[in-house]
Amino acid sequence: MSEPDKFEDDLLYALTRTGEGFRPDQTDQAGLVAGGYQRGRRRWRRRSTAAVVGSAAALALVGTGAVYLTGNGSPSGGTATVAAAPSASAAALTPASAGPGTPTPTAAATVSGDEVLSTFKALLPKGGITEAGGRGTDDPQLKGTYVGAQLVFDDGAGKSLLMLGVQKHRPGQSQDRSCPELKPGQLDACSVTTLADGSKLYLSEGYEYPDHRATTKEWMASLTGPDGREINLSEWNSPQEKGAPDSRPNPPLTLDQLKAIVTDKSWDRIVAAVKPDGVDYAALSTGVSLQDRQAILTRLLPAGVSTTKVDGNEVVMNVELAQGGATGSLVVRMQKLTGQTGEAKDGAQGATTLPEGGQLKLYGPGTANPKGAPMAEVVRNGILVQVGEPPTGKPLLSLDQLKAIATSPEWKPRK
Amino acid sequence: MGWTRGGRETKDAEFLELVSSRTGHLYRSACLLTSGDTHYAEDLVQEALSRMYVLWRRSAFTGGRNRIENPAAYTHTVMVRTFIAQQRRRSSGERPTETLPEREGHDADSSLRLTLLDALGRMSAKDRAVLVLRYWEDRSVEETAEVLRLSSGAVRTRTTRALARLRTLLGDSLAELAAR
């Protein structure tokens, strides 16, 4: 099962559909051009009074700092909106998503940004430390799935930025890092080794810019452990990632030193407190195995329609169907409702109450939710069952048949 | 060539002609970057165009020495960099816990868009930019690295992380929505 590829495909599709949906009408588009042009004229006039040297790229950068005060005063005032507090309508659209204050019942403990930072500092050789900061599991933006620290380290031979991050993946969801196809000059060194405990260690000596636009170097270590941990550490020969002149020929720590830091036992406590990212299918499972779900489906399919291939996980089942010479497909999702993720479809219309209990919603052409492919969705006793026919192959089942499958009492949880 | 000659009117006409054909696509990219905040997206497009105008004039002014190789693509680059810079300025001054954008201009029943935009809105500006560049604008790792001034390795890492984060936010609702 190549879940990552599948997810990327879905994302590609979703981004395209979503992006293409934004269409400025002709007048708006002309307005945008005119607005940009007017702003550009003003900016050019301000700028052209002074002699400016530098490449086009440098100029684009310079512009960011210098002109913003006036930029923000533009009539549209639009630049302020993203930072605004969540609006009532936005909140209403996402009832199922966890808010920033939602407690995380699975977290073993919390670690603060200061604890992450002090753990990191304790592993460094002697030297001066400035501009230090850490982010812990209590950081509202990171939601406990990522912690990190960064600081500027000086061993006496020049300042250097160091950045460290810790995250955790669920079993089977780690992605080991591999050395890129080496182009000359892109990396000075790269290796991936397996350690005694099964961890994979990636080490590289590279550059901030692969085209060597600046001479800034980035050396890094990345550890992925059998417990799902991923610890990344990077160092630069400059006090900033970019935009600052080099402070020394090379970053201060050797690859061996980087390795010693990322493999240190003192991270165990922090790793334990970090919540795994990815989807916790086990938590959503109804206890009905994939095999049992396939058996249920087989009993419910209309005569003449058979399953030729099934894969899936604790929650989702992807089915290939055959009828005579035609092939089609079906997606069946059965899960516990936890109120955590976007499990119920927001904004769907036309729920009907079933005689035997539960709520039914229909999607697809001819329903109250006409966009997209046909799907029947039943919520009953805290269990969600969705039976949908994706546009792969021939549509072999009618909406009524999807409904008959989804509403069957056979979809009973085992736990 | 018209590049080094001609008065302001000619230059400006060239500029307007160039950007007019690209504005629709620019706007759509901006909408994804801003996770559906169309006001902010409009502002971002105008900001990018205004910067591009300055670069355009400069390329004439310096006799073509700073000639822009692919102005259309470069306008996108300028826009993404502007976006990142604005977000950086913003996040250094204030730390909004949730930056849910104002929602406007989409159908109430379009769960795919709402779900995706909501998830994008919960990600960092750079993560969003990486995903938009790689999966919407279909840029290579190297091109993305160039736009964001990151190393290719950093782009790969960030893409992996951003995908993982998005997956956390979306569960597999995306698969179902995309399938529908």
Report on the structure:
- The complex is a heterodimer of chains A (415) and B (180).
- With 415 residues, chain A is of the alpha+beta class.
- Among the domains of chain A are: 113-273; 282-406, Protein Transport Mog1p, Chain A.
- Chain A has helices at 3-21, 26-48, 56-66, 68-72, 88-93, 113-122, 255-262, 268-273, 281-284, 290-300, 399-406, and strands spanning 128-135, 146-154, 159-168, 187-194, 200-207, 217-224, 229-236, 306-312, 316-323, 326-336, 352-353, 359-363, 375-380, 383-388.
- Chain A has a seven-stranded antiparallel sheet, with helices on one face. A seven-stranded antiparallel sheet of chain A has the order 8-9-10-14-13-12-11, covered by helices on one side.
- The longest helix of chain A is centred in the first third of the chain and has 23 residues, at 26-48.
- Chain A is globular, with a radius of gyration of 27 Å.
- The two termini of chain A are 26 Å apart.
- Chain B is mainly α and 180 residues long.
- Chain B contains nine helices and no strands.
- Chain B has helices spanning 8-20, 23-33, 38-61, 71-93, 111-121, 125-136, 141-148, 152-170, 173-179.
- The longest helix of chain B is centred in the N-terminal third of the chain and has 24 residues, at 38-61.
- Chain B is globular.
- Chain A: The chain crosses the membrane at residues 49-69.
